[in-house]
């Protein structure tokens, strides 16, 4: 059991332990919870190289949690025994890259890795406290279904998931709306994902409403989400280092909300030998523009074939920015207040025009994505989903012979079968779980992109 404590990026919350941080989600001052410090694990890497995924997860997580060791071990085992392959996260050589397959969980997306653990944490804490929880979340695609499948049918939990109406793939929508358990509420919001995320944050910042209705967060604003994702950077990176004899690796991460690549950033700061983090965006490129210019400025959301990345305001970026300003909450608060008004903030850039030497950022357009799916399949017989293809496309611009490239595969290609068909001219991407959804009964309520409408809906349905 650790003594790690968590603070808000905006400085307005008292330090708290892991279990309180899990239940708090978004800090009451509107900031994000971060650990007071990061452990240096360089002296453990040699031992960690040989550990199975659940064993490594236990070793990493115990550095950050206040759970008794035996209870944490049980939570980890319960979370990862539901995956379809014993390895949990296979690493597959594909041409010049190593593809890190993160999609072998219940909903065929990387979000399962964190949300299975978080859901089990919620249930563990609620049983100990004899409490109940109303989860409010926003999704651009995969978070919603992974969260819903993590908590469906659990007696002490109700879940309200907002998705932007018509802006997630049909299969992603069906994965969410075909879950008919009484504790699951799907909301199609007439707007963008950024609208959904803004509504969620507004309701969490309404402290009396949050406390009265026991609101909990399952989006990556919840620290436990990012923490669980740190594990697979160590797992995949250490395996490839062992196999290749290299001294450092590179990771290419398709990202919209900055949560996945933030986990890689923390892994690097903890001591994983990372030469570069390749940040890959689609046409919604606010993060690429930041890491190439130092300016973070909102644009208009562009619908693409990689819809989970169709985001302009990345909720986890604040955690990185907190470090960037020297962990000074006053400076961070001022920057975020200005950004809320102007939609723009900036940081100083180095002499060579470099924003952060750890990051390389690039955009994979729709054409790039389709070309990459086509080329990879023809050369290697491997199907990439469109999000993963964005990462592989951008990775191809910064190979180094002495630093193996690991590309995170964030979803099974069958979740985006239309994009695969558009790229290859054939209907090749299928999975039995998804094929069964075509005839499934669905349930969903449609709401305007209005915080009061969502507030009223949650208030009406949050009690049994």
How would you describe what is shown here?
The protein is α/β, with parallel strands linked by helices and 464 residues long. 52% of the residues are buried. The protein starts with 5 loop residues before the first strand and ends with a helix. The chain has helices at 18-24, 45-48, 53-61, 69-80, 111-129, 142-151, 170-177, 193-205, 207-212, 223-244, 259-270, 286-293, 317-324, 329-342, 366-380, 386-395, 417-424, 432-435, 451-461; strands spanning 6-8, 33-35, 91-94, 97-101, 133-138, 157-164, 184-190, 215-217, 249-254, 274-281, 295-297, 344-346, 359-363, 405-409, 445-448. The radius of gyration is 21 Å and the shape is globular. It has 19 helices and 15 strands. Helix content is 43%, strand content 16%. The chain has a domain at 91-106 and 224-430: Rossmann fold, CATH 3.40.50. It has a 6-stranded mixed sheet, with helices on both faces. A 5-stranded parallel sheet has the order 8-5-6-7-15, with helices on both faces. A two-stranded antiparallel sheet has the order 1-2. Helix 15 crosses helix 16 (386-395).
